[in-house]
Write a structure and sequence with these properties.
The chain is an alpha+beta fold.
Length: 476
Amino acid sequence: MLGMHPASGASCSLSSSFRKQAWMLRQGGPLSRTLSTRAASTETQQPGSGQPSRTYSPLHYNIESFCQKIVPTEAEKRQKQAVVEGLRLCVRRAFPQLKGVEVHVFGSFANGLSTWTSDVDLVVTGMLQPERSTGGYELADRGRVSARLKAIADSLRKANDRHLDMYKTQLIPRARIPLLKLITKTSICIDVSISDDTGPRAARYMAQQSRAFPSMKALVLVLKMYLKSQRLNEVKDGGLSSYSLNNMVIAHLQEELKAGRDVFDLGETLYAFLLRYGEEFDYANDAVSVDSGGVVSKHDLGFAMDSARTAAVAQATYEGASSWNERLCVDCPLTKRDVSNGTYRMDLLRDSFVRAARKLEEMARGRRPNDTSVDYLQALFDVNRLVRRSYRPEVDDGYIKTIPREEELMEFSFPEGDDDSMQSEPSGRSGGSRKGGAGARGMGSRGPGTGQQGSQVLLSSHQASSSEAAACASGL
């Protein structure tokens, strides 16, 4: 087992009775904590109601309160939807000659698992499609995809729409699926990609699962914020995607229910999740497969493991990266493809779960089971900062990090050709990008974050002078 924790003579009001035997085995001796004191199993009769009223663990109420404050308001949803509609018009203007091109919302904003700080994921379909086996584009195709994303950025700059007044616009051309990252001056973050309809279908699937598992949404929201605080929420940095996290939460709930455990106490279930993926899950041999009922052996997954192997060959290697066969494997219930092969910082991810469990135990030590005087989530991240609407995630959390690496920008400069030839090109796979990159010159010295998967090209910024912004834009 990983993360052995020394026994303590103090009581722990957080841990539950269903972890009692496992904890005793980990400790290697007599149980030193009052794990059987479980607030979640307490039922009292409500006077005059005839129905028992349930009392949950203090962490449960902390999670409920946090989630009520972190979800977007109706006004915030309308504001994001206005940006989406404006971008749809820009895409139509950018490609007037292409028929069947559509813009779909996917991700957390579409499936209802978003926070007020969550970005909006948009995918342009009917244009180009990634490889089925890897879920990404071949190196030769990424320049063509990036050229279309630049055309969208150009259309945005010409738009006369107050909702599309941009704070920053940035392209990531070397990612497996090139990405256009946008931030409006109203602090709305948007990711635009060109792909198939897998994302929208996945969003509908996750919305269904969220209804089937009532505990799912709160767990996902809290874990998202925790991973973000650890800078492990971006796949381009070797972190965990929201879609992989969603699958992990569902698989955890499936396993807990199969074992006859209570999943309605959010505090108990969160703690159990941290133990499962921090200490119990064998990343070399186990896999997450919601379609198969939870946690299964990697040997039982044929196509998912083949896709992980294929994707690993196409990816660059990174210092400290786990071997592909020792990484987390998440079997997509829709495509049967491993969707977590980009999560190469496995040691950091696993250790973060262990560390979170230890922090919760430390805060709970010596407290009564019904002690509500502390916010246990504060042990994981700064709750007050995240619920404060004046907090700007795109600035404070470095939503965009520029990597002006000249050699990478030159290699992935856009194919030459006018907009008309680009617009009239039929759907499907296309030719590769050309080398060139006159715009790469003058971008500056090598910046931070050189271990990331995609080089990032800054298109515009309100912080830059007009000449600097023009120089950056002309480089694309």
